[in-house]
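This section describes the prediction task in plain terms. A model, or a person checking by hand, is given the sequence of a single protein chain and must write out its three-dimensional structure as a string of tokens. No templates, partner chains or ligands are provided. The sample shown here is typical of the held-out split.
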Amino acid sequence: MITISLCLIVKNEEATLWNCLDSAKEIADEIIIVDTGSTDRSKEIAREFTDKVFDFEWVDNFAPARNQSFKHATMDYILWLDADDVLFEEDQKKLLELKRNLDPSIDSVSMIYNYGFDEYGNVTLSFRRNRLVKRSRNFQWAGDCHVYLQVDGNILDSDICVSHKRVHHSTGRNLAIYEKRLENGDEFSARDYYYYYANELNENQFYEKAIENYTAFLEMEDGWREDKIAACSRLADCYGKTGELEKQRNALYKSFEFDVPRPEVCCRLGSILMDEGNYRAAVFWYKAAIDYQQPEENWGFTFKAYSTWVPHQNLCKCYYYLIDFEKAYEHNEIAREFRPEDPGILHNKKILEEKLKG
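The expected answer:
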């Protein structure tokens, strides 16, 4: 059986750290905590689980801190988590089983990262990340804010999930990191500069500047296909915020240059058409979102809401305006399976049952 070092970097994570460590304590043979300047109870909480708590001076870059945490590891493999991640019971069991049976020739195990949830517990955003890596390979972190682990070799794609349970977000922190690096004249990759920098601008409501950077990223030859597709959707959202509706539509169409229409793009096109009163055309795109077949090997972003309750709820509205109450009711009921307490869905149910009775 392999041994595992659990490595985290933390700063002021007292609200989430205990739950994270408690969910992984039975899996880890040692726990490494690198603290980058906490002023709350984070280090005190960490010491409930481990005596390997180290200070590291924050340098406006996540990669050095993560690499430092890896340097302290001594076990066969390194499992990394963020302080606001948890392993649910089912995934703890799967990971313990993997630990007992993992072939030592495996260099890295990827896991599904359930990053977003709605208020009913449905996963809204997920993607894969290399999560358990062989220590002897000395894999390194790269990037600055949205860092990534540079991994190669024999990789196993597992069905184990890590769930992100964020309770706060440092709005503006990552943007400040990027802008400081720009001032210093640092060389950025396409991924970091034109995509993730644009995301930070978008999140902080600098839409015009975000549009400029998304557009530059999409015009570059470099860049991961999945990032390009996501950039098209986010560019469209920015155009929607600035009222440039034709450019919004064209940004969505541009995603077709990189792959077949994705559910999130289909739903955005359906929404535009529904706003225009073109319900039949909107139906086409919402059905396309539902019919999309997810590839078995997928490292891109998966927005599950856009292939489940979102298109069904909107098909309910479309069919209502097309005076097809039976189909409207059918799709509303499917949406209700995912969100049984949603007030809007329950309201639609009541109205449609009255229509069908009359």
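For orientation: The first strand starts at residue 4 and ends at 10.
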